[in-house]
Amino acid sequence: MSEYKIPEEYYFRIHHVRPRFKGDIENVLIYVAEELARVGERPVDEFVQAVNEALFRYPGNAHRELKTINNWRTEISALFGFIEHTETTDKPGRRAIELANKQDLVESFKVFLYNFQYPGAHIKPKNVLEQVEAGIKFKPAQYILQLLRFANRDGGNSVGLTKFEVCHCIFNDLRVTRDGEGVEATWNRISENRKKQVEYDQTGDVVRYAGDIIDYMEIANLLKTYDSRTYYLNTLEEETIIKFCESTEWFSEYDLMINNRSGSIEAVKSCTAGWFAYVNRDIQDTDFSTDILAYIANDEEEFNELKKNSGSDGRPNIAEFLDREEALQTRVETYFDSFTTKDIGDIGEGLVHGHECMRIKLGGREDLIHLIKRIPTQFAVGYDISSVELDERKRYIEVKTTISSKPLHFNRIHLTKNEWNTASSTHDRYYVYRLLLSKTEKKLFLLQDPVGLYKADKIDMVPSDGADITFDPSKVGEFEELLTWKN
After folding, report:
1. Dihedral of the CA atoms 186, 190, 191, 197 (nearest 10)?
2. Counting Cβ atoms within 10 Å, is residue 443 exposed (0-12), middle (13-18) or buried (19+)?
């Protein structure tokens, strides 16, 4: 077998910033997004100091050198656009604030990939200039999805791509990245290589940039793999895939230089502010929020079961269990605010509400289920769900939900001032339910009486527009199986 070589006149290796924390990227990004949101806009020196202090607090970073921490900060800013710069200040970008507020890492990676292009100010100006002078004009995620849709044009989803094919036949080939070669020609080239059983250079350093984008597309739920070698379209994301494929969004400030195949470092630098404004623009018209029930279901059968047991609004359908009059009252009290399965906070509260109903049912106190109620946010009582113990004592539950492609750390929770004050006044009746939803599992962690634990020196708390709580899950709290309501 021969090794595949891109014709020399078409070879150009494109690249981007590669975070040194890539193996832990989801944990790092959601931590940094939350910290940036709390730091807010400040004079540059103050902002840098506050962000660096937060990065030193990330698990494992306490003894790192300042140079490494600075690299973390600049890499996050460059690649993901989490920081915006003014003439005198730095501030968290819209993308960081969205992730901090919505806790949807899957959506965050979709938006990142939707915006990501070559050239872009995610690399040093001299490297941007090299891409400009080579005529590069390429959106990788869009092209990969278009190619896979073409390869599967006859139906089904049996055709996938390897990282090696993506690297050598797409990323490093100017026929694609400069000349805009159609996906049919590229697919024919890949197909011919398969027939000839050609080999590709699989050296990690060679493949890593294409591999990064494929990994990010898997985190974004756009691609799926069964063997970590071949990647297929995730057909459950058809609506999003079509948005990617049909998008005409493009950062155009480099275009004149690209067309002329010439520019200058100064001209490239003048586009930097525009690039970060572009990646942080308002794209509300393009909704990439995750349909959580579809995301956490292992298959269509489980998805339908979750929908059935959650009701149309994601909460337990207990009308069949209670008598008609009581059920009507329960619906009035519990279901009166709006809900969609793309709102992570709401679906988390809905799943916990179902968990609580099932916990009480299994405990033999079905007569108490009607007392379990979800409290509308506008009431600002400091908790999300009013529940009950088997002995009829109250249980006040604050739900914290995050969605990611892989399970995240459990050792960190933020409570608002109102939530901390309510926890202080309700003592051991107050619970934080930490719900993490991922492709592989649904994990529920219960932390009872956080204020009492802090006073007993069993958890750490740092005041931060409320309370940042850190703890060791092996010493406090407990994991529980997430129960699904069944009539």
Report:
1. 160
2. middle
* Residue where the block lists tokens 């490297």: 127
Q: Which CATH number does 8-279 carry?
A: 1.10.10.2090
Residue with tokens 């990065």: 55
Neighbours of 154 (CB within 10 A): 7
404-437 pLDDT, tens per residue?
Answer: 887 787 688 889 999 999 999 999 999 999 998 8
> Rounded distance, CA 315 to CA 303, Å?
14
Give the tens place of pLDDT for each residue, 292-350.
766 766 666 666 666 655 543 444 443 333 343 444 344 333 333 333 455 777 888 88
Could you give the CA distance from residue 57 to residue 485 in angstroms, rounded to a whole number? 39
With contact defined as beta carbons under 8 Å apart, do 349 and 397 qualify? no
Radius of gyration of the chain (CA): 25
User: Tokens 């007993």 — which residue?
Assistant: 456
Q: In what order do the strands lie in the sheet with 230-233?
A: 161-162, 230-233, 223-225
Which structure tokens are listed for 346?
A: 């709401």
Query: Rounded distance, CA 344 to CA 60, Å?
Result: 29
**How far does the chain reach from its first CA to its final CA, in angstroms?**
61
Burial of 238 (0-12, 13-18, 19+ CB in 10 A): exposed
- Amino acid at residue number 394: K
Q: Structure pTM?
A: 0.83
- Please state, in angstroms and rounded to a whole number, the distance separating the CA atoms of residues 19 and 17: 6
- Check residue 313 and report its DSSP letter: T
Strands of the 412-415 sheet, one edge to the other: 412-415, 467-470, 460-463
Domains 8-279 and 292-480 share a fold: no
Rounded Cα distance between 178 and 175, Å, is 6
Domain boundaries of the chain, sorted by first residue: 8-279, 292-480
CATH code for 292-480? 3.40.1350
Token pair of 387 as six digits? 């529940």
Residue 333, token pair as written in the block: 């009290």
Closest CA to 80 of 44, 105, 48: 105
Neighbouring-strand partners of residue 399 = 433
Rounded Cα distance between 482 and 487, Å, is 16
- Find out whether 66 and 52 touch, Cβ atoms under 8 Å: yes
Burial of 39 (0-12, 13-18, 19+ CB in 10 A): buried
Helices 94-102 and 105-115: crossing angle in degrees, nearest 10, is 160
Task: Judge if the upstream peptide bond of residue 119 is cis by omega within 30 degrees of 0.
Answer: yes
Q: Count Cα atoms within 13 angstroms, Cβ side, for 208.
A: 12
